[in-house]
Model the fold of this input.
Amino acid sequence: MDDRALMERISQGDHGAFSTLVKQHAPALDRFAVRLLLQHQQAEEVVQETLMRAWQRAGDYDAKRARLSTWLHQIAHNLCVDILRRQKRELPLADGAETALTLPDATEYPTTKSETQDRVANAIAKLNEHHRTALVLTYYQGLSNREVAQIMDLSVRALESLLVRARQQIKKILEESS
Amino acid sequence: MKRSPFTPPLSHARAIDILNTYGAAPERWPAQERDALIELLKSSEELQTVQKTAGDLDGLLDNWQPATAFSHDILFRSLPAQAPRAQSWSDQLTSLFSNHPIGWQQGLLAGAPLILGFIWGLSGDPSNQDWSEAEFLILNPPMEVLADE
Done:
């Protein structure tokens, strides 16, 4: 079933179609939210809210404008950004701290205990919101550059600029930590 | 791999940009530039070195695979009982007026001339002959009317 047909059925209240959507998209949305928020509980709330909105607004989905995956990531991204900005407001950065966001303790990072994983997770955690989002969407979520630009409401050129800087920063952080 | 005649040529500088931006794996490169970059890589040792460096970072990034534990049950428990509905034009119109307690009355008042005009229109278009007859009677009153005056 294609995206348009699936969302049409969901807009008619078809629980089976919604179950298909959840099975197809929830794991990717969860990984996205976990990587962006670095916290399981908030990530799960984001996924739940994203899917609830998909259920409620299924009639608004326009397959001509975006793939379903892109549309769902866009909803999840907006929810994550709200959380990250709220965190930032609640715990303002120290002067001169350009990159670090307020993040959970490193022990909460959703990784296994592998040292490399922890290093990478820490490095990604030190990126600012835009760099991390660009990297996670492009690198881990398997979306095209145009789709990521659409989700982040940027031009492709601006996205590429973020990606280059994100990779440079991670490389630097990893080199410093090794 | 044969390049499409419509594929724009890729500059060396752009090839380096792509590798530094998207990493070493072709599946992450922009689709419209992928074939051209693969071709360029075959003949450029410098690009191959940039790709290898990008690949080293990719290898580290690939390590980060967070475990997910999303519970589908929670979601289904919280689904609203009623079916979602695609908003039809009549729903949108209803919600537009129902958001304001006296909105529908104002809407009705504002729309009354339109409704009356519509009904009048449906009741039949007076023929040209009718009007010409009326016009004729005004301009040429019957003799008895003239006599009364």
